[in-house]
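Marked as duplicate of an earlier ticket. Keeping the data here for the record.
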Amino acid sequence: MSLSDKHQCREIMTKAICGKGRKFSTVTHTVTPPHNPTSILGAWIINHQYEAVAAGDGVEVIGTYDFNLLYSYDKNSQTDVAKETVSYVDLVPLSFLDPKHRASTVEVSAEATQEPSCVEASVSSGGGNVIIRVEREFIAELVAETKVRVLVCGRGHGDFEDKDFDFVDEGNFEDLDPDLLDDDL
């Protein structure tokens, strides 16, 4: 008896992760406060929002966040907060991509593994601007319909072929306490 007599393959259509990727970015922004800054007292990022869209062999993460920059001016005698909204687009390349997925069924998602954070803020050499360095990181997944091949064994289950199993339950359920039963079953 040949292998093909005992086994055959079947194809199953299913949704699966057909692509994955990760991207770490360091970007520089220039903020121009209303007064010439003397020193930076603090810089932070708030209100981060983003969405993911399919883009060729990658996933685009399109988002915005707000800078809040606390600085001193007038020879460190006054303080103010400069606020600015920044838009960005990060293309996350997919390091793994199943070329046999159905493109018409693609769903993408992204997760910020490192929310945008200010790692450095300094007054520019000209004195009128503040240079802010931001780091962020995303992972992205592409889910789509794809075919999976499974091997179907045609003749029983190996060691269990010659065994008899009795799956008839003869238990008495009348004495069970219904308060102990799990409703989620």
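See parent ticket for discussion. Residues 172 and 178 are 14 Å apart (CA to CA).
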